What we know:
Blueprint: E1 10-13, H1 19-29, E2 33-38, E3 53-55, E4 61-65, H2 66-69, E5 75-79, H3 85-96, E6 100-103, H4 117-123, E7 128-133, H5 148-155, H6 179-202, E8 206-211, H7 212-218, H8 221-230, E9 247-251, E10 256-260, H9 264-273, H10 288-293, H11 295-306, H12 311-320, E11 325-327, H13 338-342, E12 346-351, E13 355-360, H14 384-390, H15 396-404
Parallel strand pairs: 1-2, 1-6, 2-5, 6-7, 7-8
Antiparallel strand pairs: 3-4, 9-10, 10-11, 12-13
Amino acid sequence: MTLQALEGVRVLDLSRILAAPFASQLLADLGAEVIKVERPGVGDDARQYGPPFLADADGNATRDAGFYLSCNRNKRAITVDHSTAEGAAIVRELAAKSDVLIENFRTGVLAKYGLDHASLRTANPGLVYCSITGYGQDGPYANRPGYDGVFQAMCGMMSVSGLPDGEPGGGPMKVGVSMVDILTGLYAANAIQAALRHRDRTGEGQHIDLALLDCGLASLSHFVQNYLISGKVPGRRGNGGYGGIPSQTFRCADREIFVVASTNRQFGALTRALGQPELAVDPRFDEVSHRIENREALLAILSEAFARRPAAEWLASLEAADVPASPVNDVKTVFDNPQIRHREMLSAVDHPVAGAIQMLRNPIRLSETPIGPPRAPPVLGQDNEAVLRDLLGRSDGEIADLRAQGVI
């Protein structure tokens, strides 16, 4: 059997909601053993973020929301009350046997239970300890709470999303998905693997301090760099981009499509597909920089042209001309796309309560260490006995006592 890339790496996951569980899910997809630790009787807050809730085999709603299912596949799950002395001791034992610990408690909370990096590194100097918080471990905002929308507002992401002022519906707009959470999860998984590489060379673990605010700001990338070299604050362009022009949606006779023709070759092909080849040699539009300078004039011409025919006709013409374009899909119609079907982005998994359910597949494809078939996100406390018995050596009687005391 082919080994997976992170096989042999054990991750203790003390996190909840989205950013950190998304990071640990990515590590689990790549083959790491991830043990998710949740509060007894309650679990990860994300389990309650419904409706919709997963239905069991009889059609009755379970306690697990779709939100939770999205970022907890391929994990084992135990319940431990770390606020008790016995529970904190269990977490410390697990940390001593782990390569990575991921947590997203507010700064300083876990130190009260001896579960912070400084406490745990004594028993496990090679531990990679990743803390994901809203604002980081230090600074004037370090103790503030926050969620994705707050960080989209604070980092500037909302200021460049949405329609321009003066247009109907104009104003700052939150990105539809929890984008700062997702990006932070990706940064975290990347940082953890870099820290493991360092650990493997030196035997030395380290503390990773990731802030959602920092990751949100870093994700603005060229928007920020353009400002830094020009002093001009970028505005909102709705469904238009800040690169070459055109790069945005156009309303056809029946629906919208998205078209990008940013290079001179692509723009020339677009003008021919539109039946207006003269636009490619118009001095206002004959170079990338000219099209950017004369953006409004060009978009007015293109908008008028696209409105004359249905989307399907334009998409066929643009594909024949090798101009990048797409219909604007929703999360239902995207699965009608033959490329999505070919890439098998949906996987069927066997859930212990619901039976067969469909889930998104990890998009990473590795030639030598492929990602294996996914396992369903665990139900609350699914692996209590197995982890406590097999990993920590607890007897059945000891496990029963812990349960009776409410520790697990």
